[in-house]
Design brief:
By secondary structure, the chain is mostly helical. It has 16 helices and 6 strands. A 3-stranded antiparallel sheet has the order 1-2-3. The chain has a 3-stranded antiparallel sheet with strand order 4-5-6.
Length: 365
């Protein structure tokens, strides 16, 4: 398609900025006079088309496009949406993308509109405001804007955890590094994360037999099904909603090997043999479990256990802790949980232990 137009005796180039690179500039059209000479105008027009094509390809490959913007005379970095540009540069799983997008949405509100104005005092303010925000899974805060939340006093027990605040700060620091490398900000800036004295094993407790019995005693059959699958498989809640049941080498398994699934890590693609205690009813239990909204099960477990360090996720900790206490090899536990483990070279979808070995381990619960 030609973008060359003759007006009076001069050739002009006019082309709308492609949507794929429109976030790089506030200009909607490239409108430029080229030459009175038709042959030269065609060459200049072809060069501009080529530069735009290169910019689109460079973005797809997560490469720097700043030099192309200079040649196209679109290098008005003050108008660049650095949040969108940073988001497009990421090469991570869809699940991680969604997480980062939610963090960026809050940071966009807390940071100044023009990042060139940013200084350490402003970063300290951003950090302080993050500490004032509540957990967004608490119903009464969900519909409130960030601005409104900062105007009210949030009870300490409703405030975001240190881990969540640090997630924001780490994302902020990578965003600022990205902005500095592209000369959106004049000097490197970063916000220190918050130190915590807690070690990983102190953050969440495994459930004891009394806790597990309490969850299993619910009169809601769908909840009971979800709790049983979670305990006997060690699956993350999100994985429970994605798995299917397959028979592999005569062993019934919760199957998470479908390459189309959006999983947390490469190691999350795995098979988990169904425990003998739920083997006969596994299909029915899974249908009941996935009939529930995930948030309902999470809230019910929290309300039932009445302990800040115990939650639905603690069933996964219980699975791992009990297998370890039964002498199951660390590598086997890691594979069942979908964790990376050393000592083996594994492909993305083929694991290192046979289902018979994994089944023996699961049935030690």
């Amino acid at each position: 398609m030609s973008h060359l137009n003759l007006r009076v005796n001069t050739y002009y180039y006019r082309r709308r900025i492609p949507k794929s690179i429109s976030h790089l500039t506030s200009i909607k059209y490239i409108h430029r006079s080229l030459s009175k000479n038709k042959s030269l105008a065609k060459k200049l027009s072809n060069k501009l088309d080529h530069l735009i094509d290169l910019a689109e390809v460079a973005l797809q490959l997560n490469q720097d496009v700043s030099y192309l913007l200079v040649e196209l005379k679109l290098n008005n970095m003050e108008s660049v949406d650095i949040f969108k540009l940073y988001r497009k540069s990421l090469d991570v799983s869809p699940a991680r993308i969604r997480k980062i997008e939610s963090l960026l949405a809050v940071l966009r509100v807390l940071l100044p509109n023009d990042l060139k104005q940013l200084n350490m005092a402003m970063l300290d303010t951003v950090k302080g405001n993050l500490k004032k925000l509540p957990k967004r899974n608490i119903q009464k805060y969900r519909e409130m804007s960030i601005e409104d939340l900062l105007k009210i006093d949030i009870p300490d027990e409703h405030l975001q955890s240190t881990e969540t605040i640090n997630d924001y700060l780490k994302t902020l620091n990578t965003l600022l590094k990205f902005a500095y490398e592209r000369e959106v900000i004049a000097r490197p800036l970063s916000a220190a994360t918050i130190k915590t004295k807690k070690v990983a094993r102190e953050l969440r407790l495994a459930l004891d037999k009394k806790d597990i019995s309490l969850l299993f005693s619910t009169n809601n059959e769908a909840l009971k099904a979800l709790y049983k699958i979670s305990y006997y498989s060690g699956m993350r809640l999100s994985e429970l909603y994605k798995c299917k049941i397959s028979t592999i080498d005569n062993v019934k398994c919760f199957d998470l090997t479908d390459k189309e699934l959006d999983m947390k890590t490469h190691s999350s693609y795995r098979l988990i043999p169904v425990h003998s205690a739920i083997e006969d009813a596994a299909e029915d239990l899974l249908l009941d479990a996935i009939s529930l909204k995930p948030g309902y099960a999470t809230r019910h477990a929290t309300d039932t256990l009445k302990n800040d360090r115990k939650s639905l996720y603690s069933l996964r900790h219980s699975f791992a802790t009990e297998l370890a206490s039964k002498g199951v090899e660390t590598g086997v536990i890691a594979e069942l949980l979908g964790h990376t483990h050393s000592g083996m070279t594994l492909s993305r979808y083929v694991k290192g232990f046979g289902v018979d070995v994994l089944s023996d381990a699961v049935n030690k619960l």
